[in-house]
Amino acid sequence: MALTLSPHRAAALVRGFDASPAYEGLAGALALVIGDGRVPVGTRLPSERELAAALGLSRTTVTRAYALLRQRGFARARHGSGTYAHLSGRRRDVVDRVLVPLLDRPDLIDLGSAATSAPPGVAAALAGAVDDVTPYLGGHGYYPGGIPELQEAIAAHYEARGLPTSPDQVLVTPGALAAAAIVVHALTGPRDRVLVETPSYPNARRALAGHGATLVPNPVDEDGWDLATVAHAVRHARAGLAYLVPDFQNPTGHLMPAEQRERYAELLRAAGTVPVVDEAGQQLYLEDGEMPPPFATYHPGTVTLGSASKIFWGGLRLGWVRAPRDMVDDLVAARVALDLGTPVLEQLALARLLTGSDAVADAQRSRLREQRDALLAALAERLPDWRVGRPRGGLTAWCELPAPVATAFAEEAEQHGVVVAPGSQFDVEGRLESYVRLPWIRPVHELEEAVRRLADAWHEVGERPVGPARARRLTVA
């Protein structure tokens, strides 16, 4: 029996769509929620009359939207039955072979990557960027620092958070990983030491080590940052840089309080260590209230990394560096040794997203909040022996297993059609076999199905002896 999308739920999913014109905006919003799986293929959509009433639109508008949706391949009409969600191509046709190697599993649920689909509004920003690009076509198209509109928009973002920033302190990059690589290339030499949190995002570690730097572990425990341990690590490391993620640390999800930021900054300043602060998840606060101040508030020498990937979409491939003025020239020199700038069209789209209303980011946070709550509820119901905190934001739950079998469990989970990342992927020394990372990046029904499969996989692992963990290669995003 086919699933049915209620008019109320449909209206909630497309809330805030572009109404110029309304039928096209509605069709685009529906295509997005079908394309990213929030409305499963084969689901019966509300009738034109029901959806028109729920949205306060004319039936003619909805009729035109459904016609456009069918034309674009996101819906099919069944005579006498209604309109159904559809995808004209197979989902695997647009799946990357590096991040998701199990292409022979069409029912695979990929929870190995903490990257979500685009929220409503990204497509409109990209389309609008085409209109904005004309003045740039007469020039060379290379902007190593970023186009002025985007530099100004990023600087304004920091100003709004209480951190005075001028556009010339901003360097636009192809994502936060590229930003980290540029910083290390500019500020360290071979065998220089860099303090790195553990557990931490493995691709960031690789970027930091890529210029020959020696990585020194700086532990983050299940409760967050133990500043006594941090003080010991900072004093003894004699590191030039310290990479830290105070905003929904990946993978633990911890949020560093303001008082800890201040004390941490004092420790780094006393040691002469430059903080490199990754704020990729900073805009993903999913609760009421305000975020703590930027780390750079407490240490003016901080180099801050930002990204559009988490709050908007990874496909934009845009990040940035906000740096003290006296470092900018070195960063630009390091940057041009790698490339001469990011695509102008994507920069124009991000400038639109940052300077427009908050509707796009709000829609993303609303969706992620719902998905987080669904994942945590499913884990509590089906895997009550796991120890799982409740992050206040970000994209990931850091789950402690009752036994150190994470790699074996991840292998079993793949047999059940779910990709997960074991804790060893996030540790500098390949330990943490009692943990797995689970991101809430898929629609609710997929997350609930994923946890059901994970519970079955956990039952299988628990019934047989487990040998030593084997090295595991997984591209984690």
Describe this structure in words.
By secondary structure, the protein is α/β, with parallel strands linked by helices. It has helices spanning 7-13, 22-35, 48-55, 59-71, 122-132, 148-160, 176-187, 202-209, 227-237, 258-271, 325-336, 344-355, 359-382, 406-415, 444-462; strands at 75-78, 82-85, 109-110, 170-173, 193-198, 214-219, 241-244, 274-278, 303-307, 319-322, 387-388, 396-400, 418-419, 421-422, 435-439. Strands 4-10-9-8-7-5-6 form a seven-stranded mixed beta sheet, sandwiched between helices. Strands 11-12-15-14 form a four-stranded antiparallel beta sheet, covered by helices on one side. Strand 7 (241-244), helix 10 and strand 8 (274-278) form a beta-alpha-beta unit. Helix 3 (48-55) crosses helix 4 (59-71) and helix 6 (148-160) packs parallel to helix 12 (344-355). It is globular, with a radius of gyration of 23 Å.
List the helices and strands and how they pair.
Blueprint: H1 7-13, H2 22-35, H3 48-55, H4 59-71, E1 75-78, E2 82-85, E3 109-110, H5 122-132, H6 148-160, E4 170-173, H7 176-187, E5 193-198, H8 202-209, E6 214-219, H9 227-237, E7 241-244, H10 258-271, E8 274-278, E9 303-307, E10 319-322, H11 325-336, H12 344-355, H13 359-382, E11 387-388, E12 396-400, H14 406-415, E13 418-419, E14 421-422, E15 435-439, H15 444-462
Parallel strand pairs: 3-13, 5-6, 5-7, 7-8, 8-9
Antiparallel strand pairs: 1-2, 4-10, 9-10, 11-12, 12-15, 14-15
Helix pairs in contact: 1-3, 2-4, 3-4, 5-12, 6-12, 7-8, 7-11, 9-10, 13-15, 14-15
